[in-house]
Amino acid sequence: MTKSVTLRRPDDWHLHLRDGAMLQAVASFSGHFGRAIIMPNLVPPVVTGAQAAAYRDRIRAALAPEMTLRPLMTLYLTETTDPADVLAAHAQGIISAVKLYPAGATTNSASGVRDFDKVRGVLEAMAQAGIPLCFHGEVTDPAVDIFDREAAFIDRVLDPIRRATPGLRVVMEHITTSDGVDYVAGNDDIGATITTHHLVINRNHILAGGIRPHYYCLPVAKRETHRLALRRAATSGDARFFLGTDSAPHPDRAKESACGCAGCFTAPNTMSILAQVFEEEGALDRLEGFTSLHGAAFYRMEPNEDRIRLVRREIPAAYPTHIPAGDETVTVFDPGFPLYWHLEDPA
Ligand code: DOR
Ligand code: ZN
């Protein structure tokens, strides 16, 4: 008997679509999602409501009319962000959240926050208005080992900010450790996104037997015990955990370099990979919560009305290994196993 699962249309609560030729190349690969929280780390970053609205319009224009994706915009928090601008952009329905990058933590984060006291006023205004704050949760202190930066961030930054700002609704983005899982599971007013790739790879995939730049992302994948903790969290049914792919395309040239940049491009095959992961965990009945219900509830939105279907077939689904992007190519994330789950849309 053919195995299949029907889901409310999924949402992606953390997505990089970039701009220009890259946006044109990648947007359609997320077209089957319902909504996506769009990351603002462009060059220059999206820091005003007007910039967010213009970027939203460029994204809409890059999507074919039959595509379901609706972009939900974010502002990039800087030390000079004016609380009034954030409140106005939110009140006008332009933005759904604000993104905090510690300065220097990742791709295009140079304009991020160094001194967290300087954003206190914005965070208080956001707490009052109920605007979610999405965190890139890694400290940038060079003395902290890169594999410990998420855990250090929880103790040094996240927990103090949450204590100082009651009511602030935060999303710990792309958690990669059991420390992240435990912190989120024990608290309220907090959600966490989990990426597809962190459910699949551990740090050996990046480094054992040769260096594999297409598995390098930030936060970097950790040891196997952490991957297993992420799998348990994603498949637990706990509504604090939801899908944010962090699909982050870079030209192959920039990844396959002496200093390769961070990011895995998972948009095309994410749903097939997730179905396989949830099947392996005996949790196919919880896939819909993770991809289509929990995130919407956190963002205080209704789940999507329409549905998609995933069907398990004997022949693996065919996804491109690379896609063209202007004069460049972008490598699609290779999970390392055949993808028997095929996406049928509409259901
Ligand atoms: O791997 C990543 N890529 N992590 C991030 O935090 C940023 C992203 C990007 O924009 O390339
Ligand atoms: Zn990201």
Automatic annotation (TrEMBL):
Gene Ontology MF term list: dihydroorotase activity; zinc ion binding
Keywords of this entry: Hydrolase, Metal-binding, Pyrimidine biosynthesis, Zinc
The keyword Hydrolase appears for this protein: yes
Cofactor: Zn(2+)
Residues engaged in binding Zn(2+) 2: 99, 136, 174
Residues bound to Zn(2+) 1: 14, 16, 99, 246
Entry GO terms, CC: cytosol
Residues recorded with modification N6-carboxylysine: 99
Catalytic activity, reaction form: (S)-dihydroorotate + H2O = N-carbamoyl-L-aspartate + H(+)
Entry annotation: catalytic residues: 246
Pathway field: Pyrimidine metabolism; UMP biosynthesis via de novo pathway; (S)-dihydroorotate from bicarbonate: step 3/3
GO process annotations (BP): 'de novo' pyrimidine nucleobase biosynthetic process; 'de novo' UMP biosynthetic process
Its biological purpose: Catalyzes the reversible cyclization of carbamoyl aspartate to dihydroorotate.
Subunit and partners: Homodimer.
Protein name per the record: Dihydroorotase
Organism: Paracoccus versutus
